[in-house]
Write a structure and sequence with these properties.
The chain has 149 residues and is of the alpha+beta class. The chain has 2 domains: 1-30, no CATH class; 37-83 and 97-135, Immunoglobulin-like (Sandwich). The protein has 2 helices and 7 strands, in the order H-H-E-E-E-E-E-E-E. The strands form 2 sheets. Strands 1-2-7-6 form a 4-stranded antiparallel β-sheet, with no helix packed on it. Strands 3-4-5 form a 3-stranded antiparallel β-sheet, with no helix packed on it. The longest helix has 22 residues, at 15-36. It starts with a helix and ends in a 17-residue tail after the last strand. 9% of the residues are buried.
Length: 149
């Protein structure tokens, strides 16, 4: 029973476990794309009453991007095609880290947005989406309550 109580702590102190954890945590930011396949990184921020999303899409042309904006989220779908050349000389790869395939992301907005205001631009492999935040309806009327006698 004592072994069961201390086993998680002993496991954490195991040198192999510590090295495996360090290697996984240290390497993941550098190699996650090569292990996880094609992916896209995004930045989401607010500025001047607008929501901005910037998505890295290197090697993808705007024609291969499908974008839909809703009041609470946006959906992004993109496809990068394989770059093989037919009829070319055979290549003896020593390493191949470039990936292709399809990526789909759903990005939730922190506040409600106005989909009609959405604009998107593509420059240097970065897709920038701009959407206006929905304005709060501040119009109101104070209602007097009368009592019947």
């Amino acid at each position: 029973m004592a072994r069961d109580r201390y086993y998680p702590m002993m496991r954490m102190m195991n040198p192999e476990s510590i090295l495996d954890t360090f290697a996984r945590d240290f390497a993941s930011p550098f190699f996650e794309d090569s292990f996880a396949g094609f992916g896209t990184k995004v930045d989401l921020y607010r500025k001047d009453g607008k929501i901005f999303v910037e998505a890295e899409l290197p090697g993808i042309s705007p024609e291969n991007v499908d974008l839909h904006v809703y009041s609470d989220r946006l959906t992004l779908s993109a496809e990068k095609k394989s770059e093989t050349k037919e009829g070319g000389e055979g290549k003896n790869y020593f390493r191949s880290e470039r990936s292709w395939g399809k990526v789909e992301r759903v990005i939730s907005f922190p506040v409600e947005a106005e989909p009609e205001s959405a604009k998107a631009g593509f420059k240097n492999g970065v897709l920038t989406i701009e959407v206006a935040e929905k304005k709060e309806d501040k119009a109101h009327k104070k209602v007097m309550i009368t009592s019947e006698a």
